[in-house]
Amino acid sequence: MQETMNEYSGLVLAYLPSDKEKEVQIFPHARVDGDCVGTAVALASSLRKLGYRAQVILDWQIPPRLSFMNVPDDLITVVTDDNEQEIRSRQGLAFAVDCSEGHRMGKAESLYSGAEKKVVLDHHVSASPEAEIAYVDGKSASCAELMYLLLQTWEEKFEQKLIDRFEADCLMVGIQSDSGRFSYENTSPSTFQIAADLMERGANVTDNAYHLFDETCEGKVRLHAMALSNMKLFADGKIAVTKITKQMMDETDAPEGAADGIVNILRDIDTVLASFVIRETENNELRVNLRTKVGFDASEFAQKMGGGGHHRAAGFSGKNVDIDTFADTIVAEASAFLERT
Ligand SMILES: [Mn+2]
């Protein structure tokens, strides 16, 4: 049975490295987003205030679209073939945030999975935690909300402020990202209560919203135009699909992450219950983003396809298959899924 946040908080504290030379290493998922970065960074920074060594271990650099978060370099270590052993030697505890399993961490997987002591904090309904101590709340809109609750218990226990302006802003980025600026179904009264306190502590909602949702560039606008005009509808308009090839990325000179948001536009078509954006990646994989409305469980469908996520937003990948064939498979599977549910 899942313990309460208070119990979890105590268990985590007791599990932190007693040898203060050892490091708490915090692992977000690969293909980072505002929630996993915000949560990880707020934890690392708070642990340092409590006198622990803490580092966020990333599979790749923080992408330019999140550079507005101004995460200090010394909080982050990016895993390479050269430094993996050295990172392992500093390890006192591995702490997964916004994901529950090593295989979600890209190149950081073996550093997490091989750790002696593991803790998870997550809000993915499809999670099956790979850790001795785990707190997973699938109802929480963001992992940042859970991190806020955890840090609040520590603030009370140590009578020390941990969430200052920087940490508050990081957590707010997580909440705004994963709640779709307080508009997705997962947004709860608690989301607003936490956000209100973070705002009082100095979080900047307006700048975050611009950088997370509105800021764009020419290449991205051109890519969106192309992807939207190629969109196809199936199953009486209930399923929308578009493909983004590497050639389209090149032609439009679209930056990394430029395809973000297209899947939401397709979902918002009045007849659509499930939208899919299928994208060719640099390493010749296919990456599928899925958004749905009530009547189509994105998490269940994505798991069926070997991926995972939330009820309304999920993803999965395709390997060794061309994009057209994979699109046909997805349409057939999604149509059958609709018939059944
Ligand atoms: Mn999240």
- Classify the fold: give the CATH topology of the largest domain: inorganic pyrophosphatase (n-terminal core)
* CATH architecture classification name of the largest domain: Alpha-Beta Complex
* End-to-end separation: 29 Å
Radius of gyration: 20 Å
**How many H/I helices?**
13
Structure description:
With 341 residues, this protein is α/β, with parallel strands linked by helices. Helix content is 41%, strand content 18%. It has helices at 5-15, 34-49, 84-89, 109-113, 143-158, 165-178, 189-200, 205-214, 218-229, 246-252, 262-267, 298-304, 323-340; strands spanning 23-27, 53-58, 76-78, 91-97, 118-122, 133-136, 232-234, 239-244, 274-280, 286-292, 308-309, 313-318. The strands form two sheets. The chain has a six-stranded parallel β-sheet with strand order 3-2-1-4-5-6. It has a six-stranded mixed β-sheet with strand order 7-8-9-10-12-11, with helices on both faces. A hairpin with a 3-residue loop joins β11 and β12 (313-318). α2 packs antiparallel against α6 (165-178) and α6 (165-178) packs across α8.
Could you write a compact summary of the structure shown?
It is built from 13 helices and twelve strands.
What's the structural blueprint in terms of helices and strands?
Layout: H1 5-15, E1 23-27, H2 34-49, E2 53-58, E3 76-78, H3 84-89, E4 91-97, H4 109-113, E5 118-122, E6 133-136, H5 143-158, H6 165-178, H7 189-200, H8 205-214, H9 218-229, E7 232-234, E8 239-244, H10 246-252, H11 262-267, E9 274-280, E10 286-292, H12 298-304, E11 308-309, E12 313-318, H13 323-340
Parallel strand pairs: 1-2, 1-4, 2-3, 4-5, 5-6, 8-9
Antiparallel strand pairs: 7-8, 9-10, 10-12, 11-12
The structure holds manganese (II) ion.
